[in-house]
Amino acid sequence: MKRPSPALFIIMFLYSILAIVAIYRAVSTQSVDLFSLGVIPVLVGLAMRTSWAGIAFKVYLFIQTLGLAALAGTAIIAYQVTPDDVKVVINNQEIPVPLIALLGVTLLGFQFGVAFSKKTNAYLRNDETH
Fold this sequence. Notes:
Number of strands: 2
Low-confidence stretches: none
Oligomer: single chain
């Protein structure tokens, strides 16, 4: 398989955007955020089809899962304490928390599906049979 599958291409495109945003943020704030910058080695490994890219991709997904679980736990505890204060507001626009949770779970599920798919493994192994 010479080209990534469409699903892997979408992830590589999204990771490219995240890498640009992470680099911009690191330069503008002059602080390093490994959660954001961790996407760069994964993206490089996937683009170069290295032997370690699959492992890096899966480790980064587990880090994302832990981050989402920590955020969800914090939101649940905060909601128990003060339900009126649990809000997500961007540019004076309130975004419903269940929508954010659904989006996060959907994105993680999509990434896990791609990371553990046979097409991704064949792409990273340079396998021509799939």
